[in-house]
């Protein structure tokens, strides 16, 4: 079970629809597996509904409802709309075989894959990182904010153990040296608001922005 | 506009439905809007649909206008209502109050419209609904969420007691789509102050069920 959750401020930005697409994806993947945060977001969505209700009166054009009726009359009846088969947004984006992706090995234990191009028009860098089971990543700090969700396996650092679907945001003050737990390779999805700052000797190689 | 929101936040009550049915015991805590939405979903009831339109369309229009989409406001109202019609069969009153459900549809349709203005559909590898979900959809858990229906009533009730400066910040986040940083810049106060106002508000609204790792 997940033990590291997004904070309320970030969930509020999500509920308000203000997060960038990659950040929203991280939240969404976490929500899919975390009933606790789903109910927090439900409560925040209620707050959104109440905020939307507290407003000055505006008038909607009289013809708008007729236009809507004309549109729904030209479409199939709603009972023919069946719920979609639920496929994880992650599978849609990356397929079902994370290990089979075209990873770029950067260090003995570390591979990366930059998937920023899947989010056209976004300024964030979106990076998958794979730390082989039991493997160690070099120590690094973060120049900006890094939002990470664990997709597979688990890693540990000075802040604790991060299991599958755990969520963590690291800032400039956080230097860490993640170690993957034994068993599965640890795969994370990270959204970086600015390039990583590397502190170790091998750090340069890990940095996906320095090629 | 913020002043309007703040002023109304303190006094405005949800209007009482004009329909004469009272919720029966079996319907539990279903509110009038949720009953109407259910009728649309089950029977394609156009009278119920129109009642929902009368109540929510002005809210959605204002929602669009509040964040600079004035020229697309009527279009957003249309998109949201067509979406409500299409999805109403998926609506489950036990999982969300109608107003919450409609808010999430309005939010998603707004995001979807902005995304489509900015890029071609070929570039949309991830659909908006894959990123922002509608409450109650894609969930296989048993229904344990009666508290969800309570939460909206609780939010409305608690909102009366919040200081205006906290409501202002929340309104800017939800209605003007400003990030906490942008709110700080606009109000010329430190980011930390914005965050603490939001936290104080959420605490009072009991929205934070449990905040970890903050």
Automatic annotation (TrEMBL), chain A:
<dbReference type="InterPro" id="IPR025979">
    <property type="entry name" value="ChrR-like_cupin_dom"/>
</dbReference>
<dbReference type="InterPro" id="IPR011051">
    <property type="entry name" value="RmlC_Cupin_sf"/>
</dbReference>
<dbReference type="InterPro" id="IPR014710">
    <property type="entry name" value="RmlC-like_jellyroll"/>
</dbReference>
<dbReference type="InterPro" id="IPR012807">
    <property type="entry name" value="Anti-sigma_ChrR"/>
</dbReference>
<protein>
    <submittedName>
        <fullName>Anti-ECFsigma factor, ChrR</fullName>
    </submittedName>
</protein>
<feature type="domain" description="ChrR-like cupin">
    <location>
        <begin position="123"/>
        <end position="189"/>
    </location>
</feature>
<dbReference type="InterPro" id="IPR041916">
    <property type="entry name" value="Anti_sigma_zinc_sf"/>
</dbReference>
<dbReference type="Pfam" id="PF12973">
    <property type="entry name" value="Cupin_7"/>
</dbReference>
TrEMBL record, chain B:
<dbReference type="InterPro" id="IPR039425">
    <property type="entry name" value="RNA_pol_sigma-70-like"/>
</dbReference>
<dbReference type="InterPro" id="IPR013249">
    <property type="entry name" value="RNA_pol_sigma70_r4_t2"/>
</dbReference>
<feature type="compositionally biased region" description="Basic and acidic residues">
    <location>
        <begin position="22"/>
        <end position="32"/>
    </location>
</feature>
<protein>
    <recommendedName>
        <fullName>RNA polymerase sigma factor</fullName>
    </recommendedName>
</protein>
<feature type="domain" description="RNA polymerase sigma factor 70 region 4 type 2">
    <location>
        <begin position="153"/>
        <end position="205"/>
    </location>
</feature>
<dbReference type="Pfam" id="PF04542">
    <property type="entry name" value="Sigma70_r2"/>
</dbReference>
<comment type="similarity">
    <text>Belongs to the sigma-70 factor family. ECF subfamily.</text>
</comment>
<dbReference type="GO" id="GO:0006352">
    <property type="term" value="P:DNA-templated transcription initiation"/>
</dbReference>
<dbReference type="InterPro" id="IPR013324">
    <property type="entry name" value="RNA_pol_sigma_r3/r4-like"/>
</dbReference>
<dbReference type="Pfam" id="PF08281">
    <property type="entry name" value="Sigma70_r4_2"/>
</dbReference>
<dbReference type="InterPro" id="IPR013325">
    <property type="entry name" value="RNA_pol_sigma_r2"/>
</dbReference>
<dbReference type="InterPro" id="IPR014284">
    <property type="entry name" value="RNA_pol_sigma-70_dom"/>
</dbReference>
<keyword id="KW-0238">DNA-binding</keyword>
<keyword id="KW-0731">Sigma factor</keyword>
<dbReference type="GO" id="GO:0016987">
    <property type="term" value="F:sigma factor activity"/>
</dbReference>
<dbReference type="InterPro" id="IPR036388">
    <property type="entry name" value="WH-like_DNA-bd_sf"/>
</dbReference>
<dbReference type="InterPro" id="IPR007627">
    <property type="entry name" value="RNA_pol_sigma70_r2"/>
</dbReference>
<feature type="region of interest" description="Disordered">
    <location>
        <begin position="1"/>
        <end position="32"/>
    </location>
</feature>
<keyword id="KW-0804">Transcription</keyword>
<feature type="domain" description="RNA polymerase sigma-70 region 2">
    <location>
        <begin position="52"/>
        <end position="119"/>
    </location>
</feature>
<keyword id="KW-0805">Transcription regulation</keyword>
<dbReference type="InterPro" id="IPR000838">
    <property type="entry name" value="RNA_pol_sigma70_ECF_CS"/>
</dbReference>
